[in-house]
Design brief:
alpha/beta, 12 strands, six-stranded parallel beta sheet, six-stranded mixed beta sheet, 14 helices
Amino acid sequence: CEVNIMDRVTLSKIAKIHRTSTTTVYNAIYSCTPVNTKLKRDILNTAESMGYFLKNKMPACDIAVILPSNPVYFWSEAEKGILNEIRNSNISIKLFTYSNMDDDEDFVLCMESAKRSNSKVYIITPVNTEKTIRIFNELDKNIVFLNEYVEIDKAGFVGADAYKDGQMLAQACYDFLKKHPRILIINATAKNCKAEERKLGFCESLPESARITGEIKLPFNRTLAASIAREIEIRYQGKFDCIFVAQGWFQQVSMALKKLDLVIPCIGCENQKVSPKYAENGKLHAALVQHIRKQGEQSIKYAMKLIEGVELHGRNITVESTLMI
């Protein structure tokens, strides 16, 4: 993002109040790059009280794209897909970024910035909280979700067919699962309809000799690996032959197994840049790989159709996953 010279006096005044740079103030107001959430909130409050938004209207655009900055290796691929698809069109977009999907406050602030652009369509990587779902339901615009953590009737979704992915994984690992029939599932406590669909597709396609011995459900946080290790040690030690990871947690599961000095084969869903690392250490037998760049491209095609008036509200656009085995 570039600072508008006409705005500099006001931005400078806000920067002086908060003892920070004009660039930081600009990034906070326009959600160009992440700024410390507390500082960002304070800057926005100051800008509001000074009447900044009355004097400086954000330029309108056709599509607002809201993405997390982290993990960079994953969401930067979505951004590349979006920019690649928009390059030869006359559609205008504006990119808004927030820190990560654990920071719901920064996401809400980012959405506030995005709404000032008065966009026709919002492509969003959403955070799943009661507050954010209320924001989506109150937003009188077309919405396309780029991840599977939120599901509301009026929003479209671009991504994998989760149930089919689960089936594909179980069928591809059929012989493996006959040799490793006791399966431990590791999943998130947060509601994720797609992860549940993936698990259902997987469980309904298992060999007759295979069975689920248990499921560890935990919230995602910085101590996740230690929590997984503790649950395995207390409740499941010696009771399973392989692990089905319902979400992209191979890194944390691998760390937990290392902590317990266990080498247990895992299968599940993971990013292509992470999968090979854990395949090499013997812990990853098979993984479904998401094509996040292609999802970015398809989300723009979806948004363009919505702008043209095509009735696609709430429709899912499937981007098939690849099996790595």
